[in-house]
Amino acid sequence: MKHSSLIIVLLTIVMIGCKPTVPKQFIQPGDLEDILYDYHVAQAMAIENRQGGFDNSYNRNAYFQAVLKKHGVTEAEFDSSLVYYYSHAERLRTIYQDVRERLNEDAKALGASVGDLNKYSQYSSTGDTANVWQNETDLLLIPQPTQNRYDIYVKADTSYYKGDTFMFQFMSDFIYQSGSRDAVVCLLAKYEGDSITQTVNHITITGQSQVRIPQNRDGRLKELRGYIYLNNNEREADVRKMLFISQIQLIRFHQKKKDDEPKTNEASKADSLRRVADSARVARDTTRRGDQSGERRKLLPADKGTAIHRMDQLPAKPTRR
């Protein structure tokens, strides 16, 4: 028994000792989290304090340099550390998840209102409005082959109906040293009868992004395919570029119930008949009021008109002079 306990202790020590760590020459995960957190706060300040009505790269870079100076890190050290984390994307994604949570908590503490993205987070995978996304919700894209594209695939089941509409949404965070920011979101919706609709959007800013898939009343959705692709328009391979996608959701909206839909022709005819009957009752009331006022009127025979209560005024009596 003692030998078994000793073996377990030794195995635990070995597993802890063999746990992969970040080499000392690179920024450690906790420190990198603090830098990235301050980076996003600084970028928000740069946008808030922009001059001339537009956001220039010089202003953003000045705030970025201030963040590095605060943490005692050079730009070369930061870039070399990102290169290391590029090859260990899972670690970087975990760091960014913590950064996003801290930013969200700060926003709540400042009294930020609940946006459209968080509004749908409470929905389950059932109901008229549901979040049907079941894949990973956070991902990291860098402009390198095999790491610059994320493929989307959703297979519909019996809970999808004709007339459903969809909204694909997420949060995007760009960290760019230079160059234009451009990510492409492409969605292909395939319906019964093999009809297909394609929706393409370009993502160029940090923040909330939404892609809406239009309604199809003729068929039920069979599958949804697509991708998120990070473009690289610059030739420099060592330029710092990174896009973190978080809080991915696919919201499905069922169409309104039949009671809320426009009435059919038969229902419209029934309403018309009711209006005619109501008009007839109003006409009879008007006739009585006319007779009581002393006007000399008579009912027309049925062959004199189509309205059953049409009135014709009698000739006025001649007056003596």
List low-confidence stretches.
13-18, 285-297, 304-313
The average pLDDT score comes to: 75
Number of helices: 7
What is the element string, with H for helices and E for strands?
Answer: HHHHHHEEEEEEEEEHEE
- In total, the number of strands is 11
Helix content: 25-40%
Distance between the termini: 139 Å
> How big a fraction of the residues is strand?
15-25%
* Shape, principal axes of CA atoms: elongated
From the helix content, strand content and strand pairing, which structural class follows? alpha+beta
Which radius of gyration do the C-alpha atoms yield?
Answer: 35 Å
Question: Can you offer a commentary on this structure?
Answer:
It is a single chain. The chain is α+β, with helices and mostly antiparallel strands and 321 residues long. 36% of the residues lie in helices and 24% in strands. It contains seven helices and eleven strands. It has helices at residues 2-18, 29-48, 57-71, 75-86, 89-109, 116-119, 265-292; strands spanning 129-131, 139-141, 149-155, 165-176, 183-191, 196-203, 207-213, 221-230, 241-253, 297-299, 311-313. Strands 1, 2, 4, 7 and 9 form a five-stranded antiparallel beta sheet that branches. Strands 3-8-5-6 form a four-stranded antiparallel beta sheet, with no helix packed on it. The protein has a two-stranded antiparallel ribbon with strand order 10-11. Strand 5 and strand 6 form a beta hairpin. The longest helix has 28 residues, at 265-292. The radius of gyration is 35 Å and the shape is elongated. The model is unreliable at 13-18, 285-297 and 304-313 (pLDDT under 50).
